[in-house]
Amino acid sequence: MRIAVPLENDSGLDAPICEHFGRAPYFALIAVKDEEAEVGIFKNPAVEHSAGMIPEMLAGYGVNKVIATRMGEKAKAFFKQFGIEVVTGVTGTLKDVIEMINRDE
Predict the structure, then answer these.
(1) 10-residue stretch averages of pLDDT, the chain, 105 residues long
(2) Which of 5, 22, 35, 71 is the most buried (most CB within 10 A)?
(3) Count of CB atoms within 10 A of residue 16's CB?
(4) Nearest to 94 by CA among 36, 33, 39
């Protein structure tokens, strides 16, 4: 499972989730395998983007799920086209997200 999370900055586990998904300056990619989570953070090359560009980019990274605070219906529809599950309503830090993932596994 590969999970993407939009972040405000690249301060590691303390990085807050970016509330504006499409304008997130960074993304975390969390690879979950056998209850172990590997995390990588990268600068969003598509801050200025056209519709569908970020879902396509994340699909190229093999992302299966996106966890965010909120997201528009149009973006959700693009993710659905790529078979990527969207979970919204999540706030806090990257560490909070990883703890949530570990509880759900």
Answers:
(1) 95 94 92 83 77 88 96 93 96 93 75
(2) 5
(3) 16
(4) 39
Instruction: Give the pLDDT of residue 87.
Output: 96
Q: Give the model's pLDDT for residue 49.
A: 60
Residues 6+ apart with CB under 8 A from 83: 59, 64
The dihedral of CA 73, 31, 42, 99: what is its sign? positive
- Any idea which residue has 């590691």 for tokens? 12
Other CB atoms within 10 A of residue 84 CB: 20
Other CB atoms within 10 Å distance of the CB of residue 11: 13
Shortest CA distance to 84 belongs to which of 47, 53, 55?
A: 55
Buried b / exposed e along 26-65 (16+ C-beta atoms within 10 A) = bbbbbebeeeebebebeebeeeeeeebebbebbbeeebeb
Question: Residue 82 is which amino acid?
Answer: F
